Amino acid sequence: MAETKTQSFVFPDKKRAGSDALDGENFIPTKKQQMLPAWEDPAAALAAARHEFGEHGGVNMSIEASATFTVMEPETLSRMFAGELGPDRDFFIYSRHFNPTVLNLSRQMAALEGTEAAYCTSSGMAAISSVLLQLVGSGGHVVASRALYGGTHALLTHFLPRACNITTTFVDVTDMEMVSNAIVQGRTKLLYFESVSNPTLRVANVPELSRIAHEKGVTVVVDNTFAPMVISPARLGADVVVHSISKFISGGADIIAGAVCGPASLVNSMMDLHQGTLMLLGPTMNAKVAFELSERIPHLSLRMKEHCNRALVFATRMKKLGLKVIYPGLEDHPEHTLLKSFANKGYGFGGILCVDMETEERANRLMHHLQNSTQFGLMAVSLGYYETLMSCSGSSTSSELNDGEKELAGISAGLVRMSIGYIGTLEQRWSQFEKALSRLQDSASFNKYN
Q1: DSSP letter at 180?
Q2: Are residues 190 and 85 in the same domain?
Q3: Which of 387, 384, 38 is nearest to 226 (CA)?
C-alpha cells in the first residue's frame, strides 16, 4: 500500500483511481468526476470500521490522555520528525499533532462520510477555517453560497479578506449558470457550500456543482452539518466534507467539536510541520472529548432516523394548518425530488424545519408560547439536541449578515428554525405545538407575548 510522506506524519494514502493528490494549493481536481466504489449504508460503513479495544481488553477503547509520547530509542524521535514513522504504525509525537483516541474518532468520521481520511478538531469553525486556509493562499478567490451559517459568512466576508487577502464571490448555488460564471479560471481555488443551507434549507445539487467546479479545476468543500447520514457529499463528487460535530453527531448539546473529512493527501498536507494549518494553528481536540463522541456515533443512525421522521410528520401537519413551512421532505419544496434522488435510503429528509412567521415579533411570540406555555421546545441556537431547539435565524445565527445579504439568502425576518427533537412521544409533542398555536391565534392584540 502506497504511503504519502510529509514532515512528521505518515498516513496510508489510497487515492482514487485517476485523481491527483490534494496537496494544499497545488491540488487540481480531475475534470471527470471521480466516484468511490459502490456506497454502503453509512451505518454499515461505521460498523465495518476498525474497532479499538481498551488497554486491558475492554469493549470500549482506553482514553490516551497524554500530551506527549515516549520512544524506546533516541533515533526513533528523529525518524518520526522526518516523517518516516507515524500514527499508521502507532508512533505518536505530541497530542497537538495526533493522539490515538482522536485518531480513532477520525477513523469513524471517515467511515461515516465515505472518505479516505479525517481529522477531528476542537470546533466546527476550526475545521472550516483550517480547510480554507490550507487550500486557498493569499490573493486566492472562493466562490461560496449566499446562504451559509453566519460564522462562516463572517469568516469569508470580513476576516479572510482583511487577514489573508482572500476574497469571496457569493452566489445562489441553485443557479448553475451563476456558479459557473463566478468561477475565475486560474484564480478561484474553492467552491464552498452547505449540503442543506442554514437556515433556508435549500438542498445543493452536489453532483452537478462538483462537475462544474472540477471542469474548471476548482476544489469542492461541503459543510454537511445539517445532514449527517442523510447525504454523503463525498460519494456525490465533493472533495472535502466538514462538520460541526457539536450538532447531530454529538446529540447532547454538551460538546464543541468539528471534523475535516477527505483524501488522505489533504489530511497529510494539513499536518505538515512547516505548512499544515491543523499542525500550526493548533485546533486540537481533547482526547476525553474524542472518547465521548466515539461512544455516540454508533447510535447516530437511530437518532437521525427519529429526528427526520418527526420533522416530516410535524412539517406535514403544520402545512395542513396553513402555516408557511419549509422542509425538504414536503413535495412542494423546490429540491424535494433532487434530495430523493441522492439521499441515503431510509434516513428521511433531515431533522430541521422552518416556519416563516413573516415578522420577528410574530416569530418571538410563537417561540414564547412553544417554550413557556406548552413546553414544546427550547429557545436556543444550535441543533441536533434530543429536545426541540428553536431560534429566529435572522436575529441570531444569521445576524452576521446585513439586511441585503439576508434578503439575497432568502432569510425572512420571521423565519423560525426548528431542530426537531425526539424526547417524549410524537403525539405528546404535537399536542403541545397545537396548544401553543391556539394561544397565539386567540390573542386579542399583538402586545408582546400575549
Answers
A1: H
A2: yes
A3: 384
Domain endpoint, select from 275, 295, 315: 295
Q: Do residues 402 and 411 lie in contact, with contact meaning Cβ atoms separated by under 8 Å?
A: no
pLDDT, residue 393, reads: 78
Residues 173 and 86 in one domain: yes
Instruction: Tell whether 134 and 9 lie within a shared domain.
Output: yes
Task: Note the pLDDT tens digit of each residue in 397-444.
Answer: 666 777 787 777 777 888 999 999 999 999 999 999 999 999 988 763
pLDDT digits (tens, 9 = 90+) for 322-357: 999 999 999 999 999 999 999 999 999 999 999 999
Rounded to two decimals, the pTM is 0.90
Three-state secondary structure string covering 7-61: CCEEEECCCCCCCCCCCHHHCCCCCCCCCCCCCCCHHHHHHHCCCCCCCCCCCCC
Mean per-residue pLDDT for 81-95? 89
Q: Which of 261, 295, 329 is the last residue of a domain?
A: 295
Query: Nearest 5°: phi and psi at 419?
Result: -95, 110
Provide the edge-to-edge strand list for the sheet that holds 167-171.
117-121, 258-262, 240-244, 219-223, 188-194, 141-145, 167-171
Q: Is 121 helix (H, G, I), strand (E, B) or coil?
A: strand
- Which residue range is the domain that position 8 belongs to? 3-295
Do 125 and 212 lie in a common domain?
Answer: yes
Quick one: pLDDT at residue 26? Answer: 57
| Residues recorded for the chain | 450
Q: In this structure, are residues 313 and 426 in contact, taking their beta carbons and an 8 Å threshold? A: yes
Residue 386 CB neighbours (<10 A): 15
Instruction: With respect to residue 406, please indicate whether it lies within any of the assigned structural domains.
Output: yes
| Helix 300-320 and helix 426-442, axial crossing angle in degrees, nearest 10 | 40
| Cβ atoms within 10 Å of 164's Cβ, excluding its own | 15
